[in-house]
TrEMBL record, chains A, B:
<keyword id="KW-0238">DNA-binding</keyword>
<dbReference type="Pfam" id="PF02909">
    <property type="entry name" value="TetR_C_1"/>
</dbReference>
<protein>
    <submittedName>
        <fullName>TetR/AcrR family transcriptional regulator</fullName>
    </submittedName>
</protein>
<feature type="domain" description="HTH tetR-type">
    <location>
        <begin position="15"/>
        <end position="75"/>
    </location>
</feature>
<dbReference type="InterPro" id="IPR001647">
    <property type="entry name" value="HTH_TetR"/>
</dbReference>
<dbReference type="GO" id="GO:0003700">
    <property type="term" value="F:DNA-binding transcription factor activity"/>
</dbReference>
<dbReference type="Pfam" id="PF00440">
    <property type="entry name" value="TetR_N"/>
</dbReference>
<keyword id="KW-0805">Transcription regulation</keyword>
<dbReference type="InterPro" id="IPR050109">
    <property type="entry name" value="HTH-type_TetR-like_transc_reg"/>
</dbReference>
<dbReference type="InterPro" id="IPR004111">
    <property type="entry name" value="Repressor_TetR_C"/>
</dbReference>
<dbReference type="InterPro" id="IPR009057">
    <property type="entry name" value="Homeodomain-like_sf"/>
</dbReference>
<keyword id="KW-0804">Transcription</keyword>
<dbReference type="InterPro" id="IPR036271">
    <property type="entry name" value="Tet_transcr_reg_TetR-rel_C_sf"/>
</dbReference>
<dbReference type="GO" id="GO:0000976">
    <property type="term" value="F:transcription cis-regulatory region binding"/>
</dbReference>
<dbReference type="GO" id="GO:0045892">
    <property type="term" value="P:negative regulation of DNA-templated transcription"/>
</dbReference>
<feature type="DNA-binding region" description="H-T-H motif">
    <location>
        <begin position="38"/>
        <end position="57"/>
    </location>
</feature>
DNA sequence: CTCATGTCGATACACTGTATTTTGGTGAGA
DNA sequence: TCTCACCAAAATACAGTGTATCGACATGAG
């Protein structure tokens, strides 16, 4: 009677928990986008009946929230930033990188308030970088303005990326060459400004355009911080 | 034999066309959000079998694209703006207003490239306002930066609005009072900056915060326009 | 009057999120 | 040791989804 005779005990599947569920969902989404995430497929990936999931989440939306918060962990700054500008700059670029790794994030960004622990930690770190600099309202405006830009810019970038992938052509090539619809539209002569841009514009790296747009917005914030409006806020410890 | 005896001829339903389909879809979405839009319901609203729609639309995504472009008609400026700043300012506020009238627009904004005729017309009008002002790249950066901000800000505003509606409390009230989860989080002491904001922050009108954020971004653009980088672009007529 | 054509409705399929019911195993009490 | 109660998990069920396919019918041509 050796090991080889004895059958392996039936490998009891690792006990279920939110972590495993979220990981499976993210794997599916990374592969095939958000629409590839179905509770049935997630459950199947975990060798479990679909209904089991409802012990850990109560709706599919909740699963999405968990996925988002899981990615916010990748967005957390690794070390305390030197100043507010570095903080916002880093936040923006890490959010962008995360969205390139997990394109589905672009579909969810800004879709609902992010209140998971990691998202809160990210906000905390960002706000902390403004400690003692200006009044509370200005800080709020600064953070929200930059976040809005970041959300919007990332969404556009991912949308263009997908469009390119779908047509096999880069954005500019496509317009130049013969995106049938747009070319026809431009040919009508009703869009002279647009036509000028399409014909004389040059291709720009997405990252570069993200970065310079971001710099502009950060400059704007800097300008406002120069003239503090009221009591500077201090974190009450 | 009077009119009253003669039965009405069976009112042949108005012939189908994209316009009617899109209008029906928008009606449904205005009422119950994007998820209330199903091809079957749209078809039912038009007294038609679901498959009829595929003569006019080849996929549900296409219907969404048409809906978006339909709303872009509401975003078109009514009169030629005085200068670029007025153009961008107006574009931003009209987009926001449209999103408040059609909340589902926030879910679609930035989700994919907007290439419908009305969207193109909006872009045309915007670009035209920069005629002769700076080089082409700067104009592009300006328009894209502002658009990104607008998309992001609107998405956040609508997301908060929905959250409020769902809980019956305004954002700040909610955090103050006892959004159970967040309050618990704050109580851990791990988020001192956030806690300061929640406790000492004052409620701000969404429109005001949208407007000031927008002004900041427009200021940033103005600063860049002051120092033109290269050949100013002229619309080639 | 017949036949071809092509449009429209009905049916069908594979799948979705989730509610409800059935099952099976495990503990306590007799 | 046997039985019963409980409770987690699986199976089934339901009402819907987007879309492909097929069949009938009306309309126009020959």
């Amino acid at each position: 009677m050796t090991v080889w005779d004895r059958p392996e005990p039936p490998t009891r599947p690792a006990p279920l928990d939110r972590g495993r569920i979220v990981a499976a969902a993210i794997a599916l989404a990374d592969e095939g986008g958000l629409e590839a995430v179905s509770l049935r497929k997630v459950a199947a990936l975990l060798d479990v009946g679909p209904m089991r999931l409802y012990g850990y989440i109560s709706t599919k939306e909740e699963l999405f929230d968990l996925m988002v918060d899981h990615v916010y962990a990748e967005i957390l700054p690794e070390e305390r930033p030197g100043d507010w500008r570095e903080a916002l700059h880093g936040l923006a670029h890490r959010t962008r990188q995360a969205s390139l790794r997990h394109e589905w994030l672009a579909d969810l960004l800004g879709g609902r308030p992010a209140l998971g622990p990691n998202a809160l930690a990210v906000t905390e770190a960002t706000l902390a970088a403004f400690d003692g600099l200006t009044d509370l309202d200005t800080v709020m405006r600064a953070v929200e303005t930059v976040s809005a830009y970041v959300t919007g810019a990332i969404r556009r970038e991912i949308a263009n990326l997908r469009a390119e992938r779908a047509t096999g052509l880069s954005d500019r090539e496509w317009q130049h060459a013969s995106g049938p619809h747009v070319t026809r539209m431009l040919a009508t002569g009703r869009f002279p400004a647009l036509a000028t841009f399409v014909h004389e514009g040059t291709e720009v790296e997405p990252e570069a355009s993200f970065a310079t747009g971001l710099d502009w917005v950060l400059d704007a914030v800097a300008a406002k911080l120069d003239r503090p409006a009221g009591e500077p806020f201090r974190i009450t410890p």
